[in-house]
Amino acid sequence: MAMKIIQAECTSCGDCKPVCPTSSITSKAGMYKINVDTCTECEGEFDSPQCLDACPAGEACIVFV
Fold first, then answer.
1. Could you say which of 2, 21, 49, 55 would form a disulfide bridge with 39 (CB–CB 3.0 to 4.6 Å)?
2. Domain-wise residue ranges, the chain
3. Of 31, 22, 19, 32, nearest in space to 2 by CA
4. Which has the closest alpha carbon to 2: 18, 15, 20, 28?
5. Which residues are within 8 A (CB) of 45 and not within 5 positions of it... i.e. 6 or more apart?
6. Residue 40 and residue 42: Cα distance in Å, rounded?
């Protein structure tokens, strides 16, 4: 599975992008997106997804099913 950013909840702070170990987060015109093909939910590297931990909005990053 992968993570997804809910645009309505995202504050566009950018805190998630530098902490992504797979560089799966990109931004364009202030909108952030996670590439579901490369996102690993940080499995095997961290106990939880780093974007979720870094997100001040809390609910902006969710598991994409």
1. 2
2. 2-64
3. 22
4. 20
5. 21
6. 5
The predicted-structure confidence for 21-50, as pLDDT tens digits, reads as follows: 999 999 999 899 999 999 999 999 999 999
CB distance 61 to 5 below 8 Å: yes
- 62: which 2 tokens? 């969710």
What is the rounded CA–CA span in Å between residue 42 and residue 61? 13
More confident residue, 58 or 36: 36
Structure tokens at 28: 């364009």
Tokens 């202030």 belong to 30
Residue with tokens 């909005």: 57
Please report, as a single letter, which amino acid is at residue 46.
F
